[in-house]
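R.M. (postdoc): so does anyone remember the format we settled on? I'll just put the structure tokens first.
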């Protein structure tokens, strides 16, 4: 990963703040093959200086962004309009700009409200510690579009603005929630994302966003998606391609999903910091090579087939409680979806598990609960209520008893979140570059033991997998070490008479295809499968 740059050198500490907000901006264009290709809108937008942080009205006709001239320390806010498919020459918004710094703007979907960050006179200053100079920190300001232009900017009131730096404002679609980034002094790497209620210039209930948005690393520039339930944001977390990468996180039923790294070509080995989207076009910032200046603005049209929310739902593993064999049968499924104030909407249908006992329930992202029970027939089972998590396919073992032998109601064993992949019992996950089992995964191994302990003449295949980072030889060794760790845990649990086949797949069979970015925790896994069981029957 490369650090923030000034030519070929790292930027001075105090200059880092400016450069981070100054990353290259790009939009995505779709070819006939569905690929994403960066294109530069040219000199009407980009200059020899820094052009960054674009924001667009919902009709796609107006772009507002920041520009810092070459060899200048202060930024101004510029505006351009789309005429006959071409962006007009960008011009400064003189009612907004001052002699000091204006940057990281946000224009509302209707083009009537403009939020931005500035260290102009009137901004708050930190306590003076002596021996230095007074300086003003960046605060968030708002201006409204009028018949004659833009109103005089007003600093937001309440607890949003502090003696720290507040930057990168945005608003929810209904205009009632403000999002912004805050960090202390010149330390952009302490940046976290906050939310607040907003009404005009008044704000309240300021609070940092929870995990998985804020983390132990740095987060900056959150932007609500215009057509998906969730948010884009930038983070310096280590699974990224560069120092800063852009992520998407779903937000459904007041629950955050797992952040997804957007991957290439949006993210790069350089700094990628802000993103906005209009329809199938997205705009984002990166200081990668090849631009007109230190940072440029680019455009890309993106196919929904290229970037879409991960599936939400459950992968069901149906077994006979007594024999532990896979069961091919029908299950009645009821999915309740969120219908806002009108109450839940229920959809009922039947799912059939295949010869390996595997069935799949894809709920969609608006589902609030799922009920599964055995359909009328040979098997019986009490209805089980499951709660989906946005962007996750959870693995669930369903234990059934034959109706004639039923003596007690059994609950399923829920094996934890897992992506949609082909495994018999459910994966065991590992930390980055680790072959040690966490306490949570040791409990998972115990569940696997409980499923398999009554199976005679068992042949168990244990396959270790890694994410794509690291050399092939290293990953093959790591995958084998993970598989051995699971085998040893099963033996210690009491599964001593089984015949084990321990193999390493290294990085060759990823469960989530994302280059070297995004959701790699799903690739760091061990798969336990029953190769041969009672009576010579083969499983998966």
């Amino acid at each position: 990963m490369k650090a923030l740059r000034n030519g070929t050198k790292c930027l001075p500490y105090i200059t880092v703040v400016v450069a981070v907000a100054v990353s290259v901006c790009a939009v995505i264009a779709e070819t006939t093959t569905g690929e994403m290709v960066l294109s530069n809108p040219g000199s009407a937008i980009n200059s020899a200086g820094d052009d960054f942080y674009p924001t667009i009205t919902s009709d796609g006709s107006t772009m507002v962004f920041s520009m810092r001239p070459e060899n200048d320390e202060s930024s101004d806010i510029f505006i351009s309009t789309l005429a006959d498919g071409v962006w007009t020459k960008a011009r400064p918004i003189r009612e907004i700009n001052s002699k000091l710094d204006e940057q990281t703007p946000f224009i509302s979907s209707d083009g009537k409200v403009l939020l931005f960050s500035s260290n102009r006179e009137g901004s708050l200053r930190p306590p003076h510690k002596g021996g230095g100079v007074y300086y003003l920190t960046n605060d968030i300001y708002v201006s409204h579009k009028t018949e004659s232009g833009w109103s005089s900017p007003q600093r937001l009131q309440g607890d949003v603005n502090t003696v720290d730096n507040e930057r990168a404002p945005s608003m929810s679609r209904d205009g009632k929630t403000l999002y912004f980034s805050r960090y202390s002094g010149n330390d952009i790497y302490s940046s976290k994302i906050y939310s607040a209620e907003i009404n005009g210039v008044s704000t309240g209930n300021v609070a940092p966003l929870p995990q998985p948005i804020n983390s132990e690393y740095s987060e900056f520039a959150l932007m609500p998606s215009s057509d998906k339930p969730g948010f884009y944001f930038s983070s310096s977390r280590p699974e990224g391609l560069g120092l800063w990468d852009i992520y998407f996180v779903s937000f459904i039923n007041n629950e955050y999903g797992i952040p997804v790294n957007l991957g290439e070509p949006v993210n790069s080995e350089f700094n990628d910091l802000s993103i906005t989207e209009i329809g199938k076009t997205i705009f984002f910032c990166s200081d990668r090579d090849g631009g007109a200046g230190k940072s440029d603005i680019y455009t890309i049209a993106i196919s929904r087939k290229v970037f879409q929310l991960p599936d939400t739902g459950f992968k069901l593993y149906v077994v006979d409680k007594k024999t532990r064999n896979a069961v091919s049968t029908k299950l009645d499924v009821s999915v309740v979806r969120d219908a806002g104030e009108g109450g839940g909407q229920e959809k009922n249908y039947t799912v059939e598990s295949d010869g390996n006992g595997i069935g799949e329930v894809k709920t969609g992202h608006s589902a609030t609960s799922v009920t599964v029970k055995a359909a009328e027939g040979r098997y019986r089972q009490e209805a089980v209520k499951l709660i989906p998590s946005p962007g996750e396919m959870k693995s669930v073992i369903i234990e059934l008893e034959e109706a004639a032998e039923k003596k007690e109601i059994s609950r399923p064993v829920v094996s934890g979140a897992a992506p949609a992949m082909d495994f018999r019992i459910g994966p065991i996950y590992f930390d980055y570059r680790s072959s040690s089992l966490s306490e949570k995964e040791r409990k998972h191994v115990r569940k696997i033991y409980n499923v398999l302990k009554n199976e005679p003449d068992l042949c168990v295949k244990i396959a270790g997998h890694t994410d794509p980072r690291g050399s092939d030889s290293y990953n093959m060794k790591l995958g084998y070490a993970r598989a051995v760790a699971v085998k040893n845990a099963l033996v210690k649990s009491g599964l001593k008479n089984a015949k084990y086949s321990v193999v390493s797949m290294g990085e060759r069979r990823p469960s989530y295809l994302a280059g070297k970015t995004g959701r790699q925790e799903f690739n760091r896994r061990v798969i336990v499968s029953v190769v041969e069981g009672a009576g010579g029957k083969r499983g998966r």
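R.M.: ...and that's the designed sequence above, right after the tokens. Also worth knowing: The first strand starts at residue 5 and ends at 6. The chain has a mean pLDDT of 77.
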